[in-house]
Amino acid sequence: MLSVRKRKILCLLVARYIETAEPVSSSDIKADYGEEISSATIRSELAKLEEMGYLMQPHVSAGRVPTAKGYKVFVESIPTEGGMLPAVADMREYLDRKMDEVGDVIRTTAKLLSDTTNYTSVIVVKNIGEVLVRDVRLVDIGQNKALVIIITDSGILKDCIIDLPADMGNTYLNTAMELLNRMFSMHTVEEIKELVDHVEDEIAQYKMILDQIITSLERYQNRNQEVIIEGTSRLLDVPEYQEEADRMRGVMSIIDHKELLTDMVGDGELELSFKIGKDDGIENGSLVTATYRINDNQQVHAGVIGPERMDYRKVVTILKNLETTIKSVMDDKED
Amino acid sequence: MLSVRKRKILCLLVARYIETAEPVSSSDIKADYGEEISSATIRSELAKLEEMGYLMQPHVSAGRVPTAKGYKVFVESIPTEGGMLPAVADMREYLDRKMDEVGDVIRTTAKLLSDTTNYTSVIVVKNIGEVLVRDVRLVDIGQNKALVIIITDSGILKDCIIDLPADMGNTYLNTAMELLNRMFSMHTVEEIKELVDHVEDEIAQYKMILDQIITSLERYQNRNQEVIIEGTSRLLDVPEYQEEADRMRGVMSIIDHKELLTDMVGDGELELSFKIGKDDGIENGSLVTATYRINDNQQVHAGVIGPERMDYRKVVTILKNLETTIKSVMDDKED
DNA sequence: GTTAGCAGTCAGGGATAGAGAGTGCCAAAT
DNA sequence: ATTTGGCACTCTCTATCCCTGACTGCTAAC
Fold first, then answer.
1. Residue B36, CB, less than 7 Å from strand C?
2. Contact flag B159-A158 (C-beta cutoff 8 Å)
3. pTM (global) more than 0.85
4. Which domains are present in chain A?
């Protein structure tokens, strides 16, 4: 629906605007165009592109500036197989430092991403699929409370503290643990819920414990979404925002309401996701994320947040490189 | 070292500047002064105050603006017994919502603080004093790993995963646990370190476990400092920062490097702490914190971060109110 | 030590003018 | 039917000027 020439002109314009931050004129494009073409021709094409909503003019005697819609055409044209950037060659070094947990890897990755792109970075970890319970342990911690440790196929759940009946005997906990393991082991949360509803009788006296554990499991499965943001102050480096602080607001409000991000990052199937401008939920801003699957149950969305006039090429290249780097580091951790 | 009249003039000036954000002239002060005094007299006092470093002039024919030093004199003059603000009357409501853990209380408090003051809020939780170990549990989680649960007098440590020797027998863990409890129970971390160094022989075969646990305990004692920041985007509401984004940088860099905050919040003994300006580590910004002790082992520093021209009176009042509110909520949680 | 008065300084706003950039449109060429 | 060259037009940007208003610092009198 966009002629080859229009697309080429549009992309050249966006590329130049990203570089110079100034409205692009017809003669600018003529200079970049390669083949011979007159500026008048370009002008008429620009007029049409503007009419179609890809461009806009700050004022009548200025060049053109891309709209969110215009940027989107541009980002589609970026080859995702971009070459290695010199700056990202040493990503591996960052990540090779000894790290105890996956959480550390994520946190470091966020820093790395912010440092290499010079934008504010964002990482969202999502649980996908069902959690399979492997083993359940109960640890008495005094004061009629117990700590529940649930070993699942995607990690260990250990933040669940439950209340115990006051008159509990000594063997009570052990029996409960046995029962729990018999019932829960190798089942998903959904299955466990079913089960508990059906065999009321046998477990009546442990009902209190069971309910608390199931609540906790459900919470784990549903809202275990971590959002990490690094390099907030890099927003200040963006010239657009320096001139008018108001423009920063759209981006800032997202940083303040991290929970919004979980829905804004890619939808899982897409490798790269671009959210640009108000219609996508970021006024005067843009969010580029890549989706990585680190294991069967967890998905990581990593990306950057910045102005609409973002260096998408660089960001895409870095995100692609990050994928291979993360994969290799994670694989090492498996051993 | 500052005459009564100079102090009065300085405080009137700061108060007015905080309100109007505009340089204050000698006649402005004359209007606020109460008693009869000529503007010429005030001018000569202002000149001296400027010479002493409490004030500055943006330009020669403008009024005066306080320096960081000037603000500090002002904040000393704020009565800490300020009355209840209408806006804070319902703090209790915020905090009354059911919250599972101390962590939740803290997080909600941060939001509350940001909402009531309209500044970015900051909360730092510090461990003070020695951690006393009460009980140690080991839970086998498969793959030659165990989860260590340490119940201390100030909380439960449950994020420590240790490696086990590969050829471990079935009773190994139980024996180790018994040994650990015998050795650790009711001792501080320092004492435990001593102990382990001395009775090498008996425990040789459990050395591996012990070392890992001690490392973990030390880390818990030292760096268990949580820093929570809420309402970052409120920085954008500050007029000073809107005009010149560069000024925001000082404050932003602190938000980006939370670890800096642990040293900047009050020194423990002081009830309220004011850090204003570059010399205090915040260029073009100011950090006001109050210190609350929530139990024998933990200290909470709560405060706000904003421009030098902050509404200190309001902030102080709110922080004072927060103290009573937090105390009452925490006491309820004890039950 | 305080006050009144006066001269001096400077920011801020409005008006004006010229330069430069870039477009839109039209008529001619392909 | 598309492309091109040319031209008139529009609008921003910058500089300059000037004026006004706001304060101050200073001095001399009280």
1. yes
2. yes
3. no
4. 4-76 (1.10.10.10), 86-127+225-334 (3.30.450.40), 129-222 (3.30.390.60)
